[in-house]
Task: inverse folding
């Protein structure tokens, strides 16, 4: 069972003696223990980075995929889930990292929407909670757009908010559709991370 089919740094971590991934370690992750979470990210950071660099060409995509990988894993444990075998944690990290990389590769080769889970306009959501959620998402989008470079912000605004023709906008900005796809995918990942962070701060009672 020690067979390693590829030179993955993550899987090779199974051979190391420390840290001891046991029930206590996973329990600390479920309880959002800050020291344990920091140790987890630090311990797996380099092997995750190397695995992503072997699959994704863009340094920006690698950066976003790394963030998404750790976000998914920490969210998994924070929701109370665990692993039957604590020693399989490196393999679990490897699987999540692999899946994130595949999603990014697919996103690079097909049209990707920033807000695939975006709410309908407020007029069609009479429920006050739905209105509040819609407004919160709009605020997050505004904040994320404000953090972009002028060119990228205007490009996304024209494509997503103004719904202008993508080919025409790309020609005007002297970029190709591949650049736009990457920009959309990175924005989508950041939106998702910001939304999860916002929900985390509000507590478990709200979706």
Result:
């Amino acid at each position: 069972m020690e067979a390693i089919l590829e030179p993955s740094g993550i899987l090779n971590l199974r051979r190391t003696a420390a840290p001891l991934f046991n029930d206590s370690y996973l329990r600390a992750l479920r309880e959002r223990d800050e020291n344990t979470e920091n140790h987890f990210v630090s311990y797996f950071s380099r092997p995750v980075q190397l695995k992503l660099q072997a699959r994704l060409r863009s340094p920006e995509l690698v950066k976003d995929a790394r963030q998404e990988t750790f976000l998914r894993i920490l969210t998994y444990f924070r929701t109370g889930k665990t692993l039957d075998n604590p020693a399989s944690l490196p393999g679990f990290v490897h699987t999540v990292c692999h899946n994130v990389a595949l999603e990014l590769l697919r996103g690079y080769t097909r049209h990707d929407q920033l807000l695939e889970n975006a709410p309908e306009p407020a007029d069609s959501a009479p429920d006050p909670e739905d209105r509040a959620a819609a407004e919160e998402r709009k605020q997050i989008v505004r904040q994320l757009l404000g953090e972009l470079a002028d060119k990228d912000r205007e490009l996304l605004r024209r494509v997503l908010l103004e719904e202008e023709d993508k080919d025409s906008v790309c020609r005007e900005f002297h970029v190709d559709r591949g650049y736009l796809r990457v920009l959309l995918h990175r924005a989508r990942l950041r939106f998702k991370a910001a939304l999860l962070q916002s929900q985390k701060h509000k507590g478990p009672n709200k979706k």
